Amino acid sequence: MQTHRLKCDVVIFGGGVAGLWLLALLRQQGFQTLLLETEALGAGQTRFAQGIIHGGTKYALLGKVTASSEAIAAMPGIWRDCLQGNGVIDLSKVKVLSENQCMWSHNALSSKLAGFFASKLMRSRTEEIKYQQRPVIFQNPAFKGKVYKLDEPVLDTSSIVHALAEPQQSAMMHIKGMPVFNKNSATDFNVEDIDANHWQIEAQRCVLMAGQGNAELAAAIRSAITMDIALPKMQLRPLKMVMLHGGLPEKIYAHCLEANVNPRITITSHEDSQGETVWYMGGQLAEEGIERSDAQQIKIAKQELHSLMPWLDFEKAQWACLDINRAEPEMGKGKRPDTSFFSINGAVITAWPTKLALAPKLAADILEQMKETNLTASGQSESELAALPAFPAPGYAALPWQEESRWSN
Ligand SMILES: Cc1cc2nc3c(=O)[nH]c(=O)nc-3n(C[C@H](O)[C@H](O)[C@H](O)COP(=O)(O)OP(=O)(O)OC[C@H]3O[C@@H](n4cnc5c(N)ncnc54)[C@H](O)[C@@H]3O)c2cc1C
Fold it and tell me: What percent of the chain stands above pLDDT 70?
């Protein structure tokens, strides 16, 4: 059995939005970078994301405006520049599902919530939508609440993955299973690709961006290395999302707010394999639903929609639940991160964007760190690379609402 030797500047594990964004940025800067993926591009959390490019309004609503949560305020602008083809990465082919979202209250706003909206902080981020400009659903005479516009776009996650990955096909490898790290090195390992080629890969830096898979990769590195290496720990936050299609009146992108200000429900709209509208629902519904069976969660979702939009009829709809974990750095005491995270341990960087919206910030922070630690481009020559077998590129993961087998009545 022949083992091919490959040297590169950076190896990235994981082809979700974070790994793909970093791959594009590093290659743009001249670093020989290879991305390794075990399943398919976008197969982890990325394909389940609602595609909201958060700008931190939620933190402002929760009264938690800190320096790090303010960093997210720049994200909609950074993404919009990329969408227009003027940003750091060209995302002009990405499908914009909606330029903005709305927040609605189902009754008259509570005084607490009204106070937030009236504050200087919120006035700069949101504005009330006049009756005729509202989504048609909220023009029904039975609707008694108010609707606010949130200037944060919603993007189609599959088109993000395609736009990031297509120019980088030659720098990606679809691998089988886990790498085997060579003794006492976190950056020298053996791996097999899906064409059964065997590789020994040596890199100057290894970046773990495998979402939930980071824990297993960290364990594999720890078992190869005799010296103590304190790789960061991970926390998983389970969600039970709900989707429905069939006879839906229109596409909406909306958060239902209540006095406690955490969205009771967040709805984004997508298209199933027949081009029919799908509502995809998260928020409190998904967080509180994790102990429920699918049937119980769907029953609660129906009750929620009936109570929030009693004038709509969902008789023709088909429903489905999606169980998915958010993978994040361990925060302790049930806390959630409010910005992206990376940690450096020698030549290993472990990273979680914590939000799709924060992938550009995470990649820029890692690039800066690599430059500060004098990473220099010194991979293999073109002629050495040409002598190696072509890397089998990973395929693309399907969007959950386009997988026919998920739907039931
Ligand atoms: C239900 C849900 C809704 C969300 N909605 C939003 C939203 O609207 N807006 C927002 O900003 N964020 C949202 N998020 C968060 C966002 O989806 C994630 O923060 C982001 O997608 C994480 O990207 P990632 O690249 O780090 O990981 P992932 O997308 O999880 O990708 C990890 C990749 O690594 C691969 N992998 C695993 N193990 C290995 C290994 N050993 N070797 C190589 N590859 C490996 C996996 O197959 C996968 O492709 C949502 C998350 C969830 C779960």
Answer: 91
CATH no., domain 3-46+160-233+332-401? 3.50.50.60
Atom of ligand 1 nearest to the CA of 179: 41
Domain locations along the chain: 3-46+160-233+332-401, 101-150+238-326
**49 CB less than 6 Å from ligand 1?**
yes
Ligand 1 center–CA 211 separation, angstroms: 5
The model's pLDDT over 136-172, given as tens digits with 9 standing for 90+, comes to 999 999 998 889 898 899 999 999 999 999 999 999 9
Rg over CA atoms, the chain: 23
Residue type, 295: A
Distances (CA, A) of 34 to 27, 95, 126, 135, 385: 9, 27, 42, 45, 12
How many other CB atoms are there within 10 angstroms of residue 5's CB atom? 11
Closest atom of ligand 1 to 39 CA is 47
DSSP H/E element including 314: none
Q: Is 354 in the pocket of ligand 1 (CB under 6 A)?
A: yes
C-alpha span between 381 and 164 (Å, rounded): 25
> Which of 294, 271, 269 has its CA nearest to residue 279?
269
Q: Is the pLDDT of residue 404 over 70?
A: yes
φ/ψ of residue 341, rounded to 5: -140, 135
Class for the domain spanning 101-150+238-326 = alpha beta
100-136 pLDDT, tens digit per residue, is 999 888 765 555 565 566 555 565 567 888 889 999 9
Q: Is 357 in the pocket of ligand 1 (CB under 6 A)?
A: yes
Contact residues for 393 (Cβ-Cβ < 8 A; gap 6+)? 169, 170, 172, 173, 174
Query: 237 near 326, Cβ under 8 Å?
Result: yes
Q: Do domains 3-46+160-233+332-401 and 101-150+238-326 have the same CATH topology?
A: no
